[in-house]
Amino acid sequence: MLEARLSQSMVLKKVVDAIKDLVQDCNFDCNDSGIALQAMDNSHVALVSMLLKAESFEPYRCDRNIALGVNLVSLTKVLRALQNDDLVTLKAEDAPDSLNITFESSTADRISEYDLKLMDIDQEHLGIPDTEYAATVTLPSAEFKRICTDLQAMSESVTIEATKDGIKFSCAGDIGNGAVTLRNYQNVEKEHLNVDIELTEPVSLTFSLKYLVNFCKAQPLSDRVKICLSNEVPLLVEYLVTGTSYLRFYLAPKIGDEE
Amino acid sequence: MARTRASKGSNTAATDNSAAASTPKSNYTIPTPSKNPPKIFILPKKATDAARIVLLLHPRYAKPTRYLVCPETGFYEFTRIAAPKSTPRSWLIQADGHKPQEPDTDSKPVEKDASFGTYVTNGAELFVATPIDPLFLILPTLIDSSGKSEKRRYISSDDHFDRIQEESPHLWEILRWGEGRIRGLLEARLGAVCDTVDAGDERMFQFSEDKLTAELLSKARRMSTRPLPRSMEEKFVVKPLEAPVLGVKRKTTTSTTTTTSTSVPSEATQDDSSNSDSASGTPTLKIEASESASSDSSTESGTSFASDASTTVTSTIASEESTTESEALLPAMVASPEVVSLQRLRTAFSFLCSSYVPPSLATILHSKLPAEPGADFGVLDAYLSEVNRLKHEAAVARSAGDYTRKRVMDDEELAERAEKKRKKEEEEKRKKAGESRGVRDLKKVNTTGMKKMSDFFQEKGLRIYVKGEECTKLMYEKKCSGN
């Protein structure tokens, strides 16, 4: 049986909000190390991978590996009832029909309890190797979101070019073209505004902006985002949740689509 | 001791055979079937007491067949009437001792005594004796002798009948009956199909195919004066003459009827009446049905009409009217009375040939038929070829352009389809409900040039979950062992 209590209840809500626009149904794989999720979008060009480590929960108990097949829209509906400083407890049997979600108000004595019906979802599971990326850029998540939404107005795809000078997001559309370039930036006072670029070799890849904008929905999770690029390899967009828990997005680059 | 059916059977077998039916020991004993059960015959009243059933060769099949021969009134063939096997019937026969009132009807030499008893036959067979021309019975022997017409010689009737003796001894027997009356009858019939020469006081006969053809034709003509028996008429006369029904009205129909009636004014009245008569024969014309009844009755009176010009005119109008009335359903062609009667004649002739004439002779007769006066089938053949052409055209037109013959769905199928559609829609709706706007929007994204994730990352295998538990790791393990 699973019992996981999350004090930072909003994390769960934000994670689900970030994923629900990419994936419809997915399995939350629960084991003793934490709750993991891997799912692809309908086109199978993007992948979301989430890990909420056991340390994030207080307490965390999972006797057996269970997969909680959840429709994310349904889960969102339940989580809408979640209030800001509620404690969330997830409970499930060993062979569960439903997931029990309890919200406990920390201030008032108020407990709301929901049972969410589960479903059996068969899905492909991909083994994602640890990759040495040619370019790793860490930047404020709000900045990344801003760039993506701005460029989306111009075109449907963006070319991300990482050189030693900086990282350049450029696009060309029907109405013209645009580019945003970020250079290494250090702010000692406000570290979260830093832009760190680590580069082993220059990279230039093109991605669908629609997908990137979609990934940016995870922005409330963290004020930092890490973008990793390598030629011929999917882009990795990583948001750190709490501690070492993460939410990662992978997106296949566009190849041979340059006009 | 257990009583078996077999022991019962042997008991009854021991009882008197002829009185098997009248052993009322038990209500349920089944009497053994009679070895020679009575049969039911319908014999002609005019056949005398001296009439006998004899075995003669069948003219067509050359097999011994039973015929009723009466020295006074001639030959009769038996027609067996029986219920089909699928609907078994039986006769209940009772002949209780006393002789029938009229000895004429009972020409069978069966002794009527008290032991005749009551019977239930296991088949409802009925034998009806109908007159047959003895000519057919002597035909096989005639043509046996006449291999080729050149070789044929004139021979006396005695010689002819001598030959018969070898084939069917019964015939020889009956020749001596009734002070040679049968013989006289046969000789007369022989004369009808043979060229004869008087040599002294004896007549010599030589078989003539032409005469036989003429003879058969006259029989056929007599047969065809009136409609053939219904099943025959339907199959051999109405059906072959029926032209396909075309939606489009053909001008030619009216024009042909008018030309025939004007060119042959004497036949005009008859033409009119039987034209509508033939039209009523085609099952598609419903409007004509009431008319045909009245015109049928006028057929008889129509012949007595004076065939002057005025009647010709009226008949033309009548025929035109009838065609315009039933414009939509009119067959492309309507057989003229001449054509119908010719078809009837031909059918009758081939019926005679196929039932009473040896096959070899039948083919000869068929080839000789067109030469016969009054058997000009030219009009009929022209009509039939036209009908065939129309039928062919109709068939081609249908196969080419008729899409309406698609299978029509019945209600059940429709309901099933509707149900399926409804289910599908429901499923879709449910799916839509579980789909966020973002997911829907992503479906519209142009993903050309983007590889699938599985191209980059190795598949660990398909995970199948049942109630949150992985139910098989087979694929996963297979992958691992492969690596």
**How many strand segments of chain B?**
12
For this structure, the quaternary state is heterodimer
Helical fraction of chain A equals 10-25%
Q: How much is the radius of gyration of chain B in Å? A: 39 Å
| Low-pLDDT regions of chain A | none
Poorly predicted runs of chain B are 1-23, 100-114, 249-327
Distance between the termini of chain B: 83 Å
Percent strand of chain A equals: over 45%
Order of helices and strands of chain B: HEEEEEEEHEHHHEEHHHHHHHHHHHHEEH
What is the residue-averaged pLDDT of chain B? 68
CATH architecture group name of the domain at 40-94 and 118-207 in chain B = Single Sheet
CATH topology of the largest domain in chain A: Proliferating Cell Nuclear Antigen
Distance between the termini of chain A: 55 Å
Per CATH, the class of the largest domain in chain A reads Alpha Beta
Strand order of the largest sheet of chain A: 6-2-3-4-19-18-17-11-15
Q: Mean pLDDT of chain A, rounded to whole units?
A: 90
**Quick one: biggest sheet of chain A?**
9 strands, antiparallel
What is the top-level CATH class of the domain at 40-94 and 118-207 in chain B? Mainly Beta
Helix and strand arrangement:
The complex is a heterodimer of chains A (259) and B (483).
Chain A: E1 2-6, H1 9-20, E2 25-31, E3 34-40, E4 46-53, E5 60-62, E6 66-71, H2 72-79, E7 86-92, E8 98-105, E9 111-117, E10 123-127, E11 135-140, H3 141-152, E12 157-162, E13 167-173, E14 176-182, E15 196-199, E16 203-208, H4 209-215, E17 224-229, E18 235-240, E19 246-251
Antiparallel strand pairs in A: 1-5, 1-7, 2-3, 2-6, 3-4, 4-19, 7-8, 8-9, 11-15, 11-17, 12-13, 12-16, 13-14, 17-18, 18-19
Helix pairs in contact in A: 1-2, 3-4
Chain B: H1 5-14, E1 40-42, E2 52-57, E3 64-70, E4 74-81, E5 92-94, E6 118-120, E7 126-131, H2 134-145, E8 155-156, H3 157-167, H4 169-175, H5 181-193, E9 194-199, E10 202-207, H6 209-224, H7 230-241, H8 251-263, H9 268-281, H10 288-304, H11 309-325, H12 337-356, H13 359-368, H14 378-401, H15 411-433, H16 437-443, H17 453-456, E11 458-466, E12 469-472, H18 474-482
Parallel strand pairs in B: 1-7
Antiparallel strand pairs in B: 2-3, 3-4, 4-7, 5-6, 8-10, 9-10, 11-12
